[in-house]
Amino acid sequence: MIFSTFLSALAYILHLVISVYIFVIIIAAVLSFANPDPYNKLVQVVYRLTEPVYDLIRRKIPTSFGGLDFAPLIVILVLQFIDKFFVEILSRYALSF
After folding, report:
1. Which of 9, 22, 67, 77 is most buried by its number of CB atoms within 10 A?
2. Which residues pair with 65 in a beta bridge?
3. Cα(85)–Cα(87) distance, rounded to whole angstroms?
4. From CA 32, how far away is CA 26, in angstroms rounded?
């Protein structure tokens, strides 16, 4: 019972973290079109949260086509896969106890 509750809570927290990070990626994508002040603290935080992941993707896959960078889309798709696959497995495993 305790282990089941722990796994269920872990699945929920993982889902929440993935959802918040997807929201941050969307904010970063919108900011990239708006050309904001790079010295703004909020802009710096958003870029610090997203750029390391974008760089990891860019090193593995060419993401720039026609002047558009598809790294945010790739990251969102990977996060959605993790959310739907692994978090769902974790949730179902927690319910099996």
Report:
1. 22
2. 68
3. 6
4. 10
Instruction: Categorize the per-residue pLDDT at 15 as very low, low, confident or very high, splitting at 50, 70 and 90.
Output: very high
Q: Give the Cα separation of 34 and 51 in Å (integer).
A: 17
Q: What is the token pair recorded at 48? A: 């610090």
Is this prediction's pTM over 0.70?
A: yes
Question: Which pair of tokens denotes residue 5?
Answer: 């509750």
Distance CA 27, CA 15 (A): 19
**83/97 Cα distance (integer angstroms):** 21
What total number of domains does the chain contain? 1
pLDDT of 57 strictly over 90: yes
* Biggest CA pair distance of the chain: 53
Side chain identity, residue 86: F
DSSP state letter for 37: -
